[in-house]
């Protein structure tokens, strides 16, 4: 349970990154526009005549100011869409649209409840707000997050739903906005009653944080850095930046909640004399840390590197240090010493908390969009003037941080011989580490190793198909990887078979590679690989790959058991070799029988479990109670029907009895739109001592014995 919660929180944190990513651009527009439309600032720098009201530059900066301000004014709906996109597993665009619909409906429902209960006059002062033109409760980004998480949950559950035939148009992805709209009508009504007490609790937490003084600021800074390796820092700091947890303040006649929102509201208000430190205490601590402290750590790692490796280290660390200084992106440095010397990262977290606390002590009022680098410091500190921001203390404290980080890191690296870049053994690669390296280390290297194996297999398949440039399209059915190539002559069958394929079928420029039920995973990995695959030709030495052993004859051995498989439908039965498809007829996907159905109901051929249902519903994976893996493939090339003509009656993982209905086929539709109705019934994972024996040919009834699997000693 703990791991599951942790995994969900990581996904939530990552989903916050999409709406947060727009803040630097919006902040840049607002910072420049707000600064150069502030008459006090223009007068201070003697720019009033050249750039004051009525001039073209003033008009341009006014547009920039409003363009940036609109983003911060509408963050709730951006978070609703961003979180829904980030948390949705598939069909993310549907989740985004559903989130917008749900957001408007929730706030419209709240607005209706406010009107019904006496209007805004009956509400507490500051309890209501204008949300995209709707009078609603002051929910801030929490409202967007509630919508985003809820819609994502509904989306992931219902985007594949099948409705009865009469309502089928409203099924699958079309159902998601419908259920979201209905759900958030109810949520809006409930929020009218539930949110005021919740809001009161949030404000109480905010007051507690504000009253905790310098100690609370230190704890905030320490936790914000400490959570970065786990990917949970966004979940931690966002409530302080965007909700009442970070405080509330009246700015320009409006009640603003959230530290970052307060700062940018004050930035746009020319009457503000000094930015509120009660808000910027949650932001300004990053500046001395990222502009001065971490570059000092980078210099320490360079100076302690082995002399023969300093040249290689210099470029890497200089780039990482400049990235930290300019943009506030610290992962290249932080994850490097976290990976090789976790104790250094703990010390770094302690100093991070101290940096936030010192900025609070020295009344520094510099806010930020996202990064905490020189760009934000210039826009929201230097450009605003020391009188409004006290930015000079960033430099004073920062110089001290540079010195402390340099000497402390140098001492500890030498004392404990930490393997920072350039101090590795001579045969080790000089590199900086990333979050992926940390995740791989936490997982015992499994993630990296698994990804490596998958990448090798995908690269080999790519090469077997003639390289990335020769591949036009990749798809799959229940058992085959179906690829279209530009030049069929470049396809290497031997190389493809060496990847574990049981056969390769050519149809003009179409290539079908037979892998069995695991093909969907292979297809997904190949598509991921092709996104970043090198354009140059990739070759493999097939001579190093063992050829599959030929099937041994087992009839001369003693039979020790037999399992009987029944026909899943009424029809005409025949040997699998009579199937009108060379892949099935050649037993490349397994052995069994071929039946042309005459009845629309497909029934379980034995007691067992549904192992998978192919997305296009034309095939069902089945495992018998005896452990026999089977495939019920309805028709030939029916994957191209995209689910039309098939109605699934069971779910994946369902336990079934022999004769239970699994699927219903529209026989007329499939017969007229597919090459053949002949349906292979296969055992896909026969062992060397197992052999299929056909029991019935010609007319057969559902439930009648079709073939046996004999097991020999």
Q: Can you summarize the main beta sheet? A: 8 strands, antiparallel
Q: Could you tell me how far the N terminus lies from the C terminus, measured between alpha carbons in angstroms? A: 45 Å
What is the SS-derived class? alpha+beta
Overall mean pLDDT: 83
Radius of gyration: 32 Å
Q: Enumerate the spans where pLDDT stays under 50 for 5 or more consecutive residues.
A: 444-450, 538-552
What key attributes describe this structure?
713 residues; alpha+beta; 8-stranded antiparallel sheet; 4-stranded antiparallel sheet; globular
Structure description:
With 713 residues, the chain is α+β, with helices and mostly antiparallel strands. The chain is built from 26 helices and 22 strands. The protein is globular.
Structural topology:
Blueprint: H1 2-20, H2 23-35, H3 39-44, H4 48-51, H5 56-73, H6 75-87, H7 92-116, E1 128-131, E2 134-137, H8 140-158, H9 175-211, H10 213-226, H11 233-242, E3 248-251, E4 254-257, H12 259-267, H13 277-280, H14 286-303, H15 310-327, H16 331-340, H17 342-361, H18 374-382, H19 386-389, H20 392-416, H21 435-442, H22 446-464, E5 471-476, E6 480-485, H23 493-497, E7 503-507, E8 510-514, H24 519-532, E9 559-566, E10 571-575, H25 582-585, E11 591-597, E12 601-603, E13 608-613, E14 619-624, E15 629-633, E16 646-648, E17 655-656, E18 661-665, H26 667-673, E19 679-683, E20 690-694, E21 698-700, E22 705-712
Antiparallel strand pairs: 1-2, 3-4, 5-6, 6-8, 7-8, 9-22, 10-11, 10-21, 11-19, 12-18, 13-14, 13-17, 14-15, 15-19, 16-18, 20-22
């Amino acid at each position: 349970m703990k791991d599951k919660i942790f995994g969900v929180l990581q996904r939530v944190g990552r989903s916050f990154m999409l709406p947060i990513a727009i803040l630097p651009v919006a902040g840049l527009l607002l910072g420049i526009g707000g600064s150069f439309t502030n008459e006090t600032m223009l007068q201070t720098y003697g720019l009033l005549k050249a750039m004051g009201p009525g001039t073209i530059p003033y008009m341009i900066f006014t547009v920039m100011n409003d363009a940036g301000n609109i983003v911060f004014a509408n963050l709730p709906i951006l978070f609703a869409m961003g979180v829904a996109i980030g948390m949705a597993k598939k069909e993310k665009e549907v989740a985004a649209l559903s989130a917008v619909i749900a957001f408007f409906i929730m706030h419209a429902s709240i607005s209706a409840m406010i009107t019904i209960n006496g209007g805004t006059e009956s509400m507490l002062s500051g309890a209501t707000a204008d949300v995209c033109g709707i009078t609603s409760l002051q929910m801030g980004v929490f409202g967007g997050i509630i919508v985003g998480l809820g819609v994502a949950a509904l989306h992931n559950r219902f985007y594949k739903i099948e409705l009865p035939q009469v309502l089928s148009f409203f099924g699958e992805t079309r159902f998601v906005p419908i259920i979201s709209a209905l759900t958030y009508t109810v949520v809006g009504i409930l929020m009218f009653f539930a949110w005021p007490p919740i809001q009161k609790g949030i404000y109480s937490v905010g007051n507690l944080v504000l009253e905790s003084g310098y100690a609370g600021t230190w704890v905030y800074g320490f936790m914000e850095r400490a959570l970065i390796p786990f990917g949970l820092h966004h979940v931690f700091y966002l409530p302080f930046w965007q909700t009442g947890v970070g405080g509330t303040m009246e700015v320009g006649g409006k009640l603003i909640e959230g530290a970052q929102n307060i700062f940018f509201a004050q930035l746009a208000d020319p009457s503000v004399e000094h930015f509120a430190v009660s808000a910027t205490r949650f932001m300004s601590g990053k500046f001395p840390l990222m502009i001065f402290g971490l570059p000092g750590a980078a210099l320490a790692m360079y100076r302690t590197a082995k002399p023969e490796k300093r040249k290689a280290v210099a470029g890497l660390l200089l780039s990482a240090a400049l990235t930290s200084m300019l943009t506030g992106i610290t992962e290249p440095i932080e994850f490097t010493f976290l990976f090789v010397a976790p104790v250094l990262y703990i010390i770094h977290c302690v100093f991070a908390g101290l940096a936030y606390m010192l900025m609070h002590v020295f009344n520094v009022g510099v806010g930020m969009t996202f990064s905490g680098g020189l760009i934000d410091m210039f826009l929201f500190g230097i450009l605003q003037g020391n009188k409004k921001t006290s930015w000079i203390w960033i430099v004073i404290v920062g110089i001290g941080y540079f010195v402390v980080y340099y000497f402390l890191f140098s001492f500890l690296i030498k004392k404990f011989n930490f393997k920072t870049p350039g101090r590795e053994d001579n045969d080790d690669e000089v590199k900086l580490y990333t979050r992926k390296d940390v995740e791989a280390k936490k997982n015992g290297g499994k993630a990296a190793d698994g990804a490596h194996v998958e990448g090798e297999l995908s690269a080999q398949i790519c090469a077997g198909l003639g390289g990335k440039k020769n591949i036009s399209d990749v798809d799959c059915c229940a058992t085959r990887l179906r690829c279209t190539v530009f030049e069929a002559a470049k396809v290497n069958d031997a190389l493809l078979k060496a990847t574990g394929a049981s056969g390769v079928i050519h149809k003009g420029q179409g290539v079908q590679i037979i892998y069995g039920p695991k093909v969907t995973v292979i297809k997904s990995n190949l598509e991921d690989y092709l996104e970043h695959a090198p354009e140059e030709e990739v070759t493999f030495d097939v001579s190093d790959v063992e050829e599959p052993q030929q099937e041994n004859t087992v009839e001369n051995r003693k039979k020790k058991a037999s399992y009987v498989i029944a026909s899943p439908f009424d029809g005409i039965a025949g040997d699998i070799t009579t199937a009108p498809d060379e892949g099935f007829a050649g037993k490349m996907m397994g052995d069994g029988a071929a039946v042309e159905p005459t009845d629309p109901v497909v029934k379980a051929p034995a007691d067992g479990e549904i192992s998978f249902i192919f997305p296009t519903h034309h095939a069902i994976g089945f495992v018998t109670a005896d452990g026999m893996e089977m495939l019920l493939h309805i028709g030939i090339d029916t994957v191209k029907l995209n689910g039309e003509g098939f109605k699934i009656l069971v779910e994946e993982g369902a336990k079934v009895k022999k004769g239970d209905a699994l699927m219903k086929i529209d026989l007329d539709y499939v017969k007229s739109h597919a090459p053949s109705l002949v349906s292979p019934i296969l055992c896909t994972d026969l062992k060397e001592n197992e052999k299929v024996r056909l029991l019935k040919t010609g007319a057969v009834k559902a439930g009648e014995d079709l073939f046996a699997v004999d097991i020999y000693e």
